[in-house]
Design brief:
112 residues; alpha+beta; 4 strands; 18% helix; disordered C terminus
């Protein structure tokens, strides 16, 4: 077990990061984006004989309206994907190491 801390020379403040999230949601013609503020854990299995995927368990997630920027609390979000897919499509980090953000996907009917 280990921890990975990622730092970037292109770090953004929270307001700028939220603006970037809204811009990306609009670019993709999505009605909202998600900000993940806390994660309790997850698991990854990358062995050669098993599935190559990970599952994350966010604890505090906000849905950000692409038109108004309004945030609303979302429950029951899970992050599921492949490690390579997620690592190549990451956003710049916030300026604080304690801050973490991501765009998470779940079944579309959850937010209708």
């Amino acid at each position: 077990m280990s921890n990975l801390i990622v730092e970037s020379s292109k770090a953004m403040s929270w307001p700028k990061l939220k603006e970037a999230l809204i811009a990306e949601a609009k670019r993709q013609e999505k009605p909202f984006g998600l900000i993940i503020r806390d994660v309790t854990g997850g698991n990854t299995d990358t062995s050669g004989y098993a599935y190559q995927a990970f599952k994350g368990q966010p604890r505090l997630v906000y849905k950000v309206d692409a038109n108004t920027g309004a945030e609303s609390l979302v429950r029951g979000v899970e992050i599921v994907g492949t490690p390579l897919c997620r690592s190549t499509r990451s956003s710049p980090p916030a300026t604080s190491v304690a801050c973490s953000t991501a765009i998470a996907a779940r079944r579309a009917d959850t937010f209708r």
